[in-house]
């Protein structure tokens, strides 16, 4: 029987948000003109896929059914990004700004999850390990945004 508890719910929320991040990076890699940015986005998407797999394994270990789809909000965000891209005619700076905005959202989700005192040590360890990637991605995209001003 699948277990639904604070651990699995929290980790699945993080998984769904990370899946949105993977989609966002892949879409952004397709839409930027600068090949360096495209490679950077593809690399970040691949890293995030690995983090998703690790969190899915943690959910399974906690007796839960791992998330395998993004969030509804993520779908709305992707639609907004697509609209913005169409209006901005594939403007690399606008895409980088959107990617960084997505990183801010993801960072906030993880910070909220990590403040949860009810997480088991197993779930906390999985979230902490994923946080390393999230923090690095956030910092990298923030630096990229500020370098393209």
UniProtKB/TrEMBL annotation:
InterPro entries xref list:
CHP02284 (IPR011971), DUF2383 (IPR019052), Ferritin-like (IPR012347), UCP029477 (IPR016920)
- Which protein, by its recorded name, is this? PA2169 family four-helix-bundle protein
Which domain of life, per UniProt? Bacteria
Give residue ranges for domain DUF2383. Answer: 9-115
């Amino acid at each position: 029987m699948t277990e639904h508890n604070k651990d699995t719910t929290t980790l699945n929320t993080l998984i769904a948000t990370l899946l949105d991040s993977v989609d966002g990076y892949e879409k952004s890699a397709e839409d930027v003109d600068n090949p360096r940015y495209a490679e950077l986005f593809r690399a970040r998407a691949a890293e995030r896929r690995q983090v998703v797999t690790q969190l899915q394994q943690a959910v399974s270990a906690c007796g839960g059914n791992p998330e395998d789809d993004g969030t509804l909000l993520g779908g709305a965000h992707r639609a907004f990004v697509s609209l913005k891209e169409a209006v901005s005619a594939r403007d690399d700076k606008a895409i980088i700004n959107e990617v960084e905005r997505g990183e801010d959202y993801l960072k906030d989700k993880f910070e909220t999850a990590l403040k949860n005192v009810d997480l088991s040590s197993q779930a906390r360890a999985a979230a902490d390990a994923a946080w390393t990637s999230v923090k690095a991605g956030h910092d990298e995209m923030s630096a990229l945004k500020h370098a393209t001003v």
